[in-house]
Amino acid sequence: MTGENLSTRDKKHLWHPLTQHKLGKPQLPIVKAKGTLLFDEEGKEYIDAIASWYTVMYGHANEQIVAAITKQMQTLDFVMFSGLTHEPAIELSEKLMEILPDNQAKIFFNDNGSTAVEAAIKMALQFFHNKGEKRDTLIAFEDGFHGDTFGAMSASGLSSYNGPFEDFLLNVERIPVPTDDNLSEVTDKLSQTLHKNKCAAFVFEPLVQGAAGMKFHSAKGLDTLIELCREHEVLCIADEIMTGFGKTGKNFASENIANAPDIICLSKALTAGMFPLSITSCSQEVYNGFLSDDVHKGFFHAHTFSAHPLGCAAALAGIKLLNSPQILERREAINLAHNQFLSQIKSHNKVKDVRVMGVILAIDLDIKTERYGNLRDELYNFFLERGVLLRPLGNTVYVLPPFVITKEELQKVYKAIIEALNTF
Ligand SMILES: *Cc1c(COP(=O)(O)O)cnc(C)c1O
Fold first, then answer.
1. Which cofactor is recorded for it (predicted)?
2. CA 384 to ligand 1 centroid distance, Å
3. Which of 261, 289, 323 is the last residue of a domain?
4. Residue 139's domain spans which residues?
5. Of 49, 134, 304, 349, which has the most beta carbons under 10 Å away?
């Protein structure tokens, strides 16, 4: 058994996510990670240019975060969060309040991104139920992604994931994302939706749709849509699971819009990739909707690992780093380098579109690919062969590196992209 390599052993009992096991190459075993680098069994290095699904923003095995978790596990490993409380969760709620939009007042803990969205949707539905109002419809953007549990999946509009489940989803009305050209059209569509349906919540990824291919939309447009929802007392849920913690330039993408969301979902970089944890924050008004002498009007929703102290400790260490002078300097340097690279490649004949926001760089290639298909796999493998982990979303190649990536590492990533542009 131990004589066999990891790939062979992996095949015996493991079922990987987002994988058709009858097709494609075996999974790449990673035995070690440090900073920006991943190492395989043979010691080959790979730059983690997407920060392992935009989580490890301070680098793998970051010493400050490792130290914080180690200390926490020796003091208080875990207790349930119903009936009991603890300082890591309390301190994290205080620190989050310092950086979240001013209208946020309460923090509800969950254990991953999908469950943060699930809790947000249930909060919105119960908020109206508690008031004796029946509101049974959600509004969401086309091509949004909010997770893989049923509520979150209902809000998601990416059909490659939802196909088999479409008959079992919540009522959702979809609108296109607002651009500079289509705002009146989208506003009309939203207006009709609001009049036709009993809408409870508008769920959106603010400014950047991650899984859709790092697609950007207009902040001004989003603001207009939120304002319209407000007129109908529809709760606005910002899914900042991808955009949160400095990726768009600001700490949160919601800082770019004047109308702060009623509910915000955070995960991924929240714990710097070190621990699964998420939060659903909300305004005082939403919270007040659950206060009652009737016990059943409380929010009866829990996850065993809610507010896990190790996750809270990781999050606290991460927030300390987020706006430290060293990380701020890197955040700006990456943005500058991305913009220089954008100028360099924007007129390449294989580049259909290239865009930069904060530390996010996305390039739409002028080639035809399926979201999961041969050409996409070839691109993925092409980058791996060059020591760079990039995970193309259809024909979109995006770079969202850990803040700690060095100038040289970033140049190596760009070089691999230019080679791909000249090859495919
Ligand atoms: C990743 C992601 C989710 C789902 O989070 P999981 O932890 O994978 O369940 C939801 N929304 C957005 C915007 C995401 O990027």
1. pyridoxal 5'-phosphate
2. 24
3. 323
4. 64-323
5. 49
Q: Do 364 and 249 belong together in one domain?
A: no
Which CATH number is 372's domain given?
3.90.1150.10
- The residue whose CA has the least distance to atom 5 of ligand 1 is 113
Ligand 1 centroid from CA 126, angstroms: 22
pLDDT in tens, the chain (424 residues): 457 899 999 999 999 999 989 987 789 999 999 999 999 999 999 999 999 999 999 999 999 999 999 999 999 999 999 999 999 999 999 999 999 999 999 999 999 999 999 999 999 999 999 999 999 999 999 999 999 999 999 999 976 667 889 899 999 999 999 998 999 999 999 999 999 999 999 999 999 999 999 999 999 999 999 999 999 999 999 999 999 999 999 999 999 999 999 999 999 999 999 999 999 999 999 999 999 999 999 999 999 999 999 999 999 999 999 999 999 999 999 999 999 999 999 999 999 999 999 999 999 999 876 666 788 889 999 999 999 999 999 899 999 999 999 999 999 999 999 999 999 8
Distance 204 CA to ligand 1 centre (A): 12
260 and 332 both lie in a single domain: no
Position 341: which residue type? F
**Is 151 close to ligand 1, i.e. is its CB under 6 Å away?**
no
CATH number, domain with residue 242: 3.40.640.10
Domain count within the chain:
2
> 26 — phi, psi (to 5°)?
-65, 160
**Same domain for 242 and 183?**
yes
Tell me, in angstroms, the distance from the centre of ligand 1 to residue 358's CA: 19
- Domain for residue 272, yes or no? yes
Instruction: Decide: 144 in ligand 1 pocket, CB within 6 A.
Output: no
Stated as kind and residue range, the H or E segment containing 68 is helix 63-75
> Do 199 and 252 have their domain in common?
yes
Whether 372 is in a domain gets the answer: yes
Record the tokens describing residue 423, joined without a space: 């090859």
What is the C-alpha to C-alpha distance for residues 112 and 115, in angstroms, rounded to an integer?
A: 5
Neighbours of 76 (CB within 10 A): 13
Asked whether residue 189 is domain-assigned, the answer is: yes
Residue 146 Cα to ligand 1 middle (Å): 6
Nearest to 304 by CA among 144, 112, 142, 168: 112
Residues 133 and 104 in one domain: yes
pTM of the model: 0.97
The preferred substitution site among 115, 242, 360 for testing ligand 1, maximizing ligand atoms within 8 Å of CB, is 242
Query: Which of 117, 268, 303 to mutate to test ligand 1, by most ligand atoms within 8 A of the CB atom?
Result: 268
